[in-house]
């Protein structure tokens, strides 16, 4: 039997999964399409449940493929679309569809952040694509939904949570939320407090950490 690892990439248009051996060779691959939800100009969302269904089906497809007949999966690693907002309630269920990186509805929230902190925050320019402006949009436009939020994460974090039962966020992903302090390598809770975001931060881990 040959050992392989699975790489799961949660893209915007599809979930892509590859199996790689110890020599770095791709021995099998598969892809499952995803649906964009665009109800208005500038809106771009996805249903986290569809990610789970696509990942589950993709893993079944690749592990049952003929190229995997004499291979065994020894580990899984994750990559994926950044910046998107996934908000979970106290039971760790999504409170709404995920707002994706390419959603631009939050220009007003970017203006509010710039008014308070200038053109950059925690080392990053303040842009619609980042996570914190999306959080403020939900808080201001969907307060009843926001009140249910107990933790936020990025898209691939939700897939990893589904597979492991563990909630984390990796440092480089966290940096793009605008809420990571680059000097302390911890959440900039003072920024969140300023905007009334609350203590909804996931634990931080290195990209090489074993997370489940």
Which secondary structure elements does this structure contain, and how are they paired or packed?
Layout: E1 2-10, E2 14-21, E3 26-33, E4 45-46, H1 48-63, E5 71-80, E6 86-88, E7 98-99, H2 107-117, E8 120-121, E9 124-125, H3 131-141, H4 143-146, E10 151-153, H5 155-164, E11 169-170, H6 171-175, E12 180-181, E13 186-187, H7 189-194, E14 204-205
Parallel strand pairs: 1-5, 11-14
Antiparallel strand pairs: 1-2, 2-3, 4-7, 6-10, 8-9, 12-13
Helix pairs in contact: 1-5, 2-3
Low-pLDDT runs of 5+ residues are none
- Indicate the proportion of strand residues: 25-35%
**C-alpha geometry:** globular
| Protein structure class | alpha+beta
Give the spatial strand order of the biggest sheet.
3-2-1-5
Distance between the termini: 24 Å
Give a nutshell description of this structure.
This protein has 212 residues and is α+β, with helices and mostly antiparallel strands. 30% of the residues lie in helices and 27% in strands.
What can you see in these coordinates?
The structure is a single chain. This protein is α+β, with helices and mostly antiparallel strands and 212 residues long. Helix content is 30%, strand content 27%. The chain contains seven helices and 14 strands. The strands form six sheets. It has a four-stranded mixed β-sheet. The chain has a two-stranded antiparallel ribbon with strand order 4-7. Strand 8 and strand 9 (124-125) form a beta hairpin. The longest helix is centred in the N-terminal third of the chain and has 16 residues, at 48-63. The radius of gyration is 18 Å and the shape is globular. The model has no long low-confidence stretch (mean pLDDT 96).
């Amino acid at each position: 039997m040959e050992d392989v690892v699975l790489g799961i990439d949660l893209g915007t248009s599809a979930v892509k999964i590859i199996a790689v051996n110890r020599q770095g060779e791709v021995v099998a691959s598969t892809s499952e399409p995803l649906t964009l939800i665009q109800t208005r100009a500038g809106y771009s969302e996805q249903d986290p449940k569809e990610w789970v269904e696509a990942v589950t089906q993709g893993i079944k497809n690749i592990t049952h493929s003929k190229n995997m007949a004499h291979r065994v999966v020894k580990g899984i690693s994750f990559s994926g679309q950044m910046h998107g907002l996934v908000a979970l309630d106290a039971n760790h269920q999504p409170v709404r569809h995920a707002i994706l990186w390419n959603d631009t509805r939050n220009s007003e929230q970017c203006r509010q952040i710039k008014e308070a902190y200038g053109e950059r925050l925690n080392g990053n320019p303040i842009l619609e694509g980042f996570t914190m402006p999306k959080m403020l949009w939900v808080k201001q436009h969907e307060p009843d939904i926001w009140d249910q939020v107990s933790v936020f994460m990025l898209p691939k974090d939700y897939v990893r949570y589904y597979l492991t039962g563990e909630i984390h966020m990796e440092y480089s992903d966290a940096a793009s939320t605008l809420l990571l302090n680059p000097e302390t390598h911890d959440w900039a809770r003072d920024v969140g407090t300023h905007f009334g975001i609350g203590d909804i931060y996931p634990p931080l881990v290195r990209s090489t950490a074993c997370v489940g």
